[in-house]
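Let us work through a complete example step by step.
Step 1: write down the sequence.
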Amino acid sequence: MKKTDSIIAILFALAVLGAYSIYKPFLLSMVVALLLTMATANMHKNISIRVHSEYVSALLLTLLLFIILFLPIIYIATIGVQYISAIDAQTITNTTAKLTSLVNDVPYLSDWANENLNNEKILELIQTSTATLTKAGSQGFGFIKNVFFVIVFYYILNLYGERLFSLIRELLPMRDEEGSKMVTEISSTMEIVFYSIIVTAIFEGMLFGIMISAFGFNGLLFGMIYGFASLIPIIGGAVVWIPVSLFAWSVIHSNAAIFIALYSIIIISIIADTFIKPMIIKYIKDDVLHSSVKINELLIFFSILAGMSSYGFWGMILGPAITSFLIAISRIYIKLYGKEI
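Step 2: predict the structure and record it as tokens.
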């Protein structure tokens, strides 16, 4: 390596370090926006051809992303808090009293209920919840700030995404063919994951919202909450239908609670989530996107779960992206340096 090459490498490393120190607070938003841009790259290209303007296409996609992904969050954060604050302590006390009487003759469960489901514990839980809601104000502001910057960066990246992807391919220490293949594989994976997440969340949210509105609940609010909760593999829906059925048991009737529970388990969790969701993903992959990328659905579920455990809400985007990047770079490494059999 020449002396000039060493100096350039050092200066490049210093430039990257300096940029990291400056843009660190926005790094998560930029990465999420980049992945969303990769997921909607084909849609952006098609719209640009139809309207003959990349600016209009980027604006339409940004508006669509705001409506589908972020507007429900704002609605839940405002109307949802008002809905929860309307639940008084007496309703919670009545519910726990019914639970205690129900498990009175069940060994172990009765002891646990008598110890934990009492007025002192309930009062402590209410005080803790109130403090948590108060504290969530600043955290909620931080999340809204991230949402705002994701939208801004998403619009910018849609305008200049092609140049950025070309730069990324140039910087990768591999042949153009291999770099393009890796970027394409990650982009295709994100495209399938993104559309599958949106469609299945809306589908399951509608199923729950329509049902719950028949019992006098806000179907739009609980449909949105269930839609987001359904993104969490295995236990997502139960986080919503269990407390809702318990609340219905207390203020409506036990039959309503039983129906909500059975409907959520059989219709949504078993039929929709287990049988219909894979069909939706397959249809989006094969018939809508015409993608040839091989994706293991179970791996996607685990990557979403792992991503949300590490990064929270944005983990449903980051988890599959990091996993697909690992798979793509592993294939390239094996191809270049693997032992020939």
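Step 3: interpret the result. Residues 129-139 have pLDDT under 50 and may be disordered.
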